[in-house]
Design a protein that fits this description.
By secondary structure, the chain is mostly helical. The chain has 2 domains: 98 residues, no CATH class; 45 residues, no CATH class. Helix content is 41%, strand content 6%. It is built from 6 helices and 3 strands. Strands 1-3-2 form a 3-stranded antiparallel β-sheet. Strand 2 and strand 3 form a beta hairpin. Helix 4 crosses helix 5.
């Protein structure tokens, strides 16, 4: 099947661009007359929560226009739209607005409902594993003696 096929909502499917192809494209598309961005990108959620919407900072990890793959490629979520045409541009804004159904999230991410379910399960087990590692780490620290000869919990 071709990447040009539309899904049931009329959007083109997400398109992934590999690293090799990005390097070649970047070499061609550099324009020396482009003005540098003088506005400072927000670094915290507090700085960006009241910022312009749709968010102009496509390079932010929470922006919904594109995603960086593990191999370093780019996945364009909506290849038929420009970043300023997105209805929702920030994953954090969506999270702040409360719980969503799988179908709502799938429409925002331009993926299937099944893929959203898979990501949800992966995130759940990742969080559970992180909590287990933290518990093990704390148990190990509790076993060490305090420099004064007391146990760590007795010293506190």
């Amino acid at each position: 099947m071709s990447n040009r096929r539309s899904d049931c909502r009329g959007h083109r499917r997400s398109r992934t661009i590999g690293v090799r192809y990005m390097e070649a494209a970047l070499d061609k598309d550099v324009d020396p007359d482009d003005e540098p961005i003088t506005e400072q990108r927000p670094r915290t959620r507090g700085e960006c929560v009241d910022g312009p919407r749709p968010c102009p900072w496509v390079s932010c990890r929470y922006h919904l226009y594109l995603e960086v793959t593990r191999a370093g490629g780019l996945t364009l979520r909506f290849p038929d739209l420009q970043p300023d045409e997105l209805e929702h541009s920030c994953a954090l804004d969506l999270a702040d607005s409360g719980p969503k159904k799988l179908i709502q999230i799938s429409e925002v991410l331009n993926v299937t409902r099944e893929r959203v379910r898979q990501l949800e399960v992966k995130a759940y087990f990742s969080a559970k594993a992180g909590a287990l590692q933290l518990r093990i780490h704390n148990d190990v620290l509790d076993g060490f003696a305090h420099p004064t000869g007391q146990r760590a919990e007795d010293a506190a």
